[in-house]
Amino acid sequence: MLSTAYLCLSLMMIGFEVLRKKNHVFDFLTLFNIIYWFLYPVPAFLLTSNIGNLNSILVTDSTDYIGNIQTPIAIFAGYIFVILGYYSKSSPQVAKNILIKSRSDKVIFGYAIVLLLLSCLSIQIYSLQYGGFIDALSQTALIRSNAVESGSLVFFKHFIMFSVFSSYILAAFAFDTRNRQQRFLIRVTFGFSVVISIVGCMLSAGRLPLIYYFLNLYFAYVLKTKKFLLGLVIPLLGLMVLFILYGKALFFSLSAIPEGFDAIKMAFSEAIDSQQSDSGGAAELISNFIFAIDSLDTAFSSQYDWRLFIDWYYGFLSFLPEKVVGIAHPYSVTFYNTQYIAGDVDYSIPPGILASGIYSMSWPGLFIACFSYGWIGRYLQTILNNHISTILWMPYLYVATSQVWADFQVSGDPAMYLTINFWFLIPFCLLIFPVNKISFDRHHQISQKQSYVR
After folding, report:
1. Which residue in 134, 123, 131 sits closest to 197, CA to CA?
2. Which of 38, 75, 299, 384 is the most exposed place for a label (fewest CB within 10 A)?
3. Predicted pLDDT of residue 285
4. Is residue 216 within 8 Å of residue 396, measured between CB atoms?
5. Residue 192: which residues within 8 A CB-CB, separation 6 or more?
6. Long-range Cβ contact pairs of 2-7 (< 8 A, separation 24 or more)
7. Separation of CA 49 from chain center
8. Nearest to 356 by CA among 403, 311, 399, 318
9. Does an H or E element contain 66, and which?
């Protein structure tokens, strides 16, 4: 019964996405639909239908969620609340009054260079506490799992990913067909930013940052040219699936860097064999998404006091470096969610957006979290879309912003979300406010000319 309901929700989401009107080939809600689809209805369908006995392999302690009627209701209701917030009339009405005036190309290009140099400097400083860049790269998996002690210089890790934001801006200049002057130098600079961005993603030992980076560049190209490059899509999707499946093994194999390339290959092979013996290809892929359902069911079945959205305060507090200022960060919702699900373990389980709302204020919290989330997404989309054809770098910022917004539903924890997306939030705010000019004018009209501000 429940498996049929989840299947219907999955098909409904696909049909809704195909039939609804969009300003472009994709928008903010498109990315939300994709991520929500993989987080909730698809794994829920696979588990409730018990295809390949997956529920006995993947569910941590029990399969109580299969019989808990609140869990499927929350999955359906959460989606509806996000849609209601997204299509709220007040969101675009408020957003249309905001005007962004871009400064000259030299100022924007210079800003991107500053971010890139800051990233390079941060890589060097961050690596010092581990004995240098090679040692830091070889220990990325151990550092991520807290098996290696970090010093106060770990704060500079937040600035390493500034190269990604810089790369998006530089891409706008590198692929501007009308900018023929110094094109070679600009493209070399962009190429260098790609290398530094890959290095930054590798140092984070996370698979999603690297996947998001290349997907955002691709989607920005699609947004500008209206071309999908189908010959590139299939290989890109294939590589993405392989990286999700075996990226963890790749990062662990980097520990053999000091011993040479052959040692890396051997370590990678051993890591894959160990991974396959533990689960299996399909189970390993699905296990990357099952946490959101586990968390939602746990939020309904556990005893706790409402958090009343205090995690947003904890999130902004997390920007202060604990080891430098001496202020201990309070435990966020992720810590308690992990405790409720798995007890004292050496890893974290984020709650996801639905469980986060339940932890905050039960069903009213779910409504507030999801409706506000949809409202903010449409608000940001409207502002950026109004300038997408008049500002050179706006298509890249539009795609990056949509990805960062859509990504919140994965963590659902403001502290984790703000920390992970520090690379975007700080450069974004600096670009929109001090670097450029923003005004709030009820009567301004956005030019619809298809030429960029030069």
Report:
1. 123
2. 38
3. 62
4. yes
5. 116
6. 2/44, 2/48, 2/66, 2/72, 3/45, 3/48, 3/49, 5/72, 5/76, 6/41, 6/42, 6/44, 6/45, 6/48, 6/72, 6/75, 7/41, 7/45
7. 29
8. 311
9. none
Q: Name the nearest CA neighbour of 431 among 4, 2, 109, 36.
A: 109
Helix, strand, coil tally for the chain in percent (to 5): 75, 0, 25
Pairwise CA distance, residues 28 & 408, whole Å:
12
Could you tell me the two tokens for 4? 């049929």
Q: Which residues of the chain have pLDDT under 50?
A: 61-63, 443-454
- Round to whole Å and give the CA distance between 258 and 255: 8
pTM, two decimals, is 0.88
Write down the pLDDT at residue 62.
42
Q: Which amino acid is at 224?
A: K
Burial class (CB in 10 A: 0-12, 13-18, 19+), 114: middle
Q: What is the pLDDT of residue 63?
A: 45
Tally of CB atoms within 10 A around 269: 12
Nearest Cα to 189, choosing from 203, 178, 204, 179? Answer: 179
pLDDT at 309: 94
Residue among 2, 192, 53 nearest 116 (CA): 192
DSSP string across 153-207: GGGGHHHHTHHHHHHHHHHHHHT-TT--TTHHHHHHHHHHHHHHHHHHHHHHT-H
Structure tokens at 82: 């996000």
- Residue 45: enclosing H or E segment and its boundaries? helix 41-48
Q: Take residue 363 and report the two structure tokens written for it.
A: 């069903």
131: phi > 0 → left, psi -120 to 50 → alpha, else beta; which?
A: left
What are the backbone dihedrals phi and psi of residue 438, each rounded to the nearest 5 degrees, phi first?
-125, 140
Extract the tokens encoding 142.
């151990």
Give the span between the Cα atoms of 18 and 6, in whole angstroms.
19
Question: Residue 86 and residue 27: Cα distance in Å, rounded?
Answer: 12
Could you count the other beta carbons within 10 Å of the beta carbon of residue 35?
19
